[in-house]
């Protein structure tokens, strides 16, 4: 009864929605009274005008919403419905209320009657939630059934492309969108109106009228035993047969139950493709047009009896129920998945919060670490700068030290050069001193020689003067003696001449000695000058090397020209040498 109530509510929902002209979700009370009266009429429910007036009193304010109408609908109509009304008439009444308002004005390939059948099929296949929609899976199922009924091939790619372009904001199509989809021929290209109409009618018969199979076959009469062609319609618990397929002239029914059976019969009496339907009180012989039809009918009737034994609904209803259960299961799984996703999301949010907290802590730690790193880097930079400064200063000091070392090395080299120069100067000074000493010795020798010559000259002069005095005396003495004296004088003059020559010779020697003396004196002056210059140079070196002058511990002799260049012993040695030379002459 619950399934019947759900099916009725779908049609009523369409009628109520059509009466809601301003889409406010509410309908006026007068319209609901008319709707309730019509529902009671078509559903064959006793009409209770007192309850209707009581429920919709005139003193109530405003229109009634769908929720406000549902209590009356359930209590006074739906709970009293029995399965003895005409479903087509009920659907026609609801369709009449909503078709003019909602059916598209654009031309369609289907008639209004076909649109009505699509509307009824929609109510059968739609979901049990409001507003009513048909999901893409059921749309695909319906379009496949229509395509098969039209004898065409199903274009899965075309439907997949249609699904891709499907509006993501909607979960499915409304009934009017479904009618427009089928009516515009998008999935029935190449088919004429009649073919589409026949396909819709076939699907309508199967899904709504529970027609499991239908077609012309020959039936053998029970009384006259003649064979007559009838239009057979197989439903879940009955096989009805009519004069023609317009179903206007019904000739009888074959009631099916779990005790019935179907059997194949051999050909007889000129009839082929025979099979037998055995019921509790009657047996029916039927002849199909061919073996294929015969097998299909036997299989269909056998399946129907088997379902009756199992107490199962018709296949299309069972398939619809399985699809709904599958969708509910998938929806439940999806909801469970969404719940789990929400839990995971909540957990993830918690984790995110924890991670955010950890991230903040890490950021704080990173900030502290960055600050410490910054301080460390700053300290490192300062240390590096200090180290660089120290290194630069070290390099500068090292460079200065190297310069000082180089300078000291240069100074040392200069000092060593000066030492070498001083050593050379010292050697040259020694040579100069030796030359001076030798010059002094030579001067002394020349002086002694000059003195000796002077002494000899003095003695000669004295001797000549003596001789001159003696001559004068001799002249004064006697003339006689004058001759002798003349002779002597001549001899003396000769001797004087010789002496004068010797004196001139001595004078010449003296001049030569003087010249030699002047040369020696010049050499001595030069040596003295050199010595003085060397002494000055040595003095300029701040006494680095103290000059050692040659000298003797014995006292120097003093001459008319100053200190002698020789000692007393040397003088005595030289006198001995002169005397020896003189004695040898």
UniProtKB/TrEMBL annotation:
UniProtKB keywords: Cell membrane, Cell projection, Coiled coil, Cytoplasm, DNA-binding, Membrane, Nucleus, Phosphoprotein
SUPFAM superfamilies: EF-hand, PH domain-like
Predominant place of localization: membrane
Domain PH: start-end pairs: 210-306
A Gene Ontology BP annotation from the UniProt entry: isotype switching
A Pfam short name: PH
InterPro entries, alphabetized: EF-hand-dom_pair (IPR011992), EF-hand_SWAP70_N (IPR057836), PH-like_dom_sf (IPR011993), PH_domain (IPR001849), PH_SWAP70 (IPR057837)
Top-level lineage group: Eukaryota
Cellular compartments annotated: Cell membrane; Cell projection, Lamellipodium; Cytoplasm; Nucleus
Function: Phosphatidylinositol 3,4,5-trisphosphate-dependent guanine nucleotide exchange factor (GEF) which, independently of RAS, transduces signals from tyrosine kinase receptors to RAC. It also mediates signaling of membrane ruffling. Regulates the actin cytoskeleton as an effector or adapter protein in response to agonist stimulated phosphatidylinositol (3,4)-bisphosphate production and cell protrusion.
Stated name of the protein: Switch-associated protein 70
Provenance organism: Canis lupus dingo (dingo)
């Amino acid at each position: 009864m619950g399934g019947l109530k759900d099916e009725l509510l779908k049609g009523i929902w369409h009628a109520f929605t059509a009466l809601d002209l301003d889409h406010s979700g509410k309908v006026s009370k007068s319209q609901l009274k008319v709707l309730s009266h019509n529902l009671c009429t078509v559903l064959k429910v006793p009409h209770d005008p007192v309850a209707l007036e009581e429920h919709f009193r005139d003193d109530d304010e405003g229109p009634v919403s769908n929720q406000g109408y549902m209590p009356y609908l359930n209590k006074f109509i739906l709970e009293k419905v029995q399965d003895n009304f005409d479903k087509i008439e009920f659907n026609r009444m609801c369709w009449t209320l909503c078709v003019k308002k909602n059916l598209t004005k654009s031309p369609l390939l289907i008639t209004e009657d076909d649109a009505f059948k699509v509307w009824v099929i929609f109510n059968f296949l739609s979901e049990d939630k409001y507003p009513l929609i048909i999901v893409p899976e059921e749309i695909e199922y319906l379009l496949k059934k229509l395509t098969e009924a039209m004898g065409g091939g199903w274009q899965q790619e075309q439907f997949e492309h249609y699904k891709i372009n499907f509006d993501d904001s909607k979960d499915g199509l409304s009934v009017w969108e479904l009618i427009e989809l089928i009516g515009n021929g998008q999935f029935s290209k190449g088919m004429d109106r009649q073919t589409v109409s026949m396909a819709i009618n076939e699907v309508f018969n199967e899904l709504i009228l529970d027609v499991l199979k239908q077609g012309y076959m020959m039936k053998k009469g029970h009384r006259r035993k003649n064979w007559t062609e009838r239009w057979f319609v197989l439903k879940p618990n009955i096989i009805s047969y009519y004069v023609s397929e317009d179903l206007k002239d019904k000739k009888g029914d074959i009631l099916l139950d779990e005790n019935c059976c179907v059997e194949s019969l051999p050909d007889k009496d000129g009839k082929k493709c025979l099979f037998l339907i055995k019921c509790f009180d009657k047996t029916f012989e039927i002849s199909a047009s061919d073996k294929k039809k015969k097998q299909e009918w036997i299989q269909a009737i056998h399946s129907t009896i088997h379902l009756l034994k199992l107490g199962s609904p018709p296949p299309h209803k069972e398939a619809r129920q399985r699809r709904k259960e599958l969708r509910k299961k998938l929806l439940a799984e999806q909801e469970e998945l969404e719940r789990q996703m929400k839990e995971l999301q909540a957990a993830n949010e918690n984790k995110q919060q924890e991670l955010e907290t950890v991230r903040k802590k890490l950021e704080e730690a990173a900030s502290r670490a960055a600050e410490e790193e910054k301080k460390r880097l700053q300290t490192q930079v300062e240390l590096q700068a200090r180290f660089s400064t120290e290194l630069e200063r070290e390099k500068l000091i090292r460079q200065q030290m190297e310069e000082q070392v180089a300078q000291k090395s240069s100074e040392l080299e200069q000092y060593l050069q000066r030492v070498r120069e001083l050593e050379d100067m010292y050697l040259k000074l020694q040579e100069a001193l030796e030359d001076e000493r030798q010059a002094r010795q030579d001067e002394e020798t020349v002086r002694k020689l000059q003195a000796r010559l002077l002494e000899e000259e003095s003695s000669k002069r004295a001797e000549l003067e003596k001789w001159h005095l003696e001559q004068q005396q001799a002249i004064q003495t006697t003339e006689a003696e004058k001759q002798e004296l003349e002779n002597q004088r001549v001899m003396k003059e000769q001797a004087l001449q010789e002496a004068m020559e010797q004196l001139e010779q001595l004078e010449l020697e003296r001049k030569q000695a003087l010249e030699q003396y002047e040369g020696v004196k010049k050499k001595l002056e030069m040596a003295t000058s050199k010595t003085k210059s060397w002494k000055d140079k040595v003095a300029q070196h701040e006494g680095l090397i103290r000059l050692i002058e040659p000298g003797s511990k014995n006292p120097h002799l003093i001459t008319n020209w100053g200190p002698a260049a020789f000692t007393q012993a040397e003088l005595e040695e030289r006198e001995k040498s002169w005397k020896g030379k003189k004695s040898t002459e």
